[in-house]
Amino acid sequence: MKQARYIEWSAEIHLQNAVASVDPEAGTVTLEDNTTTAGDAIIGADGIHSNARRSIIKDDTEPQPFGVSTFRFIVPSSAIEKDPAAIKFIEKDGHLTVWDDRGGRKFITYPCRNNKLVNAVAAFPECLLQPDPEDPNLKDVMLDLYSDFSPEVKALMMLADKVLTWRLLDIPTLSTWSHARATLIGDAAHPLLPYSAQGGAQAIEDALTLTALLPLGTSPSSIPSRLTLYHSTRRDRVNFVQAFSRSMGQSIPGKHVEPLMPYQKYNQVVFRHDAWVHAEEALAWEENSVWWVWLKVRAGMRFVRKGLGIAAAKMRGE
Question: Could you give the angle at which helices 199-213 and 275-287 cross, rounded to 10 degrees?
């Protein structure tokens, strides 16, 4: 594993003062109180409703409803332990459960806080229902919509103290995430529907890629080209994860829609990726193709040495 160097740094946080606009060419950010701050690079990490995106990207990027809404609630595991009808949801630590009527309605649960809480999500097509977020009886609305689901699901729903509702939003794939000295990461660049469980993970990969492409000592003049490289390095992988998430979320009442690929195969593709190595290789190729070839040779040598070591161990009977 690559070791990170510790560097003491300071940051100024402006509370209750949202970003009003970004000037990618000048490298400046203007806040709502008209304060302007400048930097060598600007990274917009302000989510799907990003103000930074509106300044950086000229595409039509306003979020649009995906056609699916959710009910969400959390139940303490201690409460579930007392209800035999719901005990199934905590029988295995770290266990994800998915219930699907193959007609658009889904019910997903997973543990949080070291298995002390169970987070539950009930997703459904908006053609079936468009609940009012201010409705004080959302729990009853949810129970009515899922009245034909299994007794275990309804038992867990009954344990909910507070039920909230969200609409799932999406934006079209952007032509770029970067312009001049500014770029985007996370949901500001590529909102991910929850079906792939990759929203946070892909944002971390974005940050890791930027760290590899903008090491300490990077000259300000090279930042625009590095940010362009950042987008091209991340684009295909993120587009794939987005496409899979959208296919998993397709909801047509009365009809089962197959995802882009089986979930097990998708997991293999996603979890075998090393964002740091991928970014290093992209930068090496951009800066010096000979160095890129050396990285490939070095990786091959490591693979051969590992294989020889395994073979030798087998010969020794280890």
Answer: 30
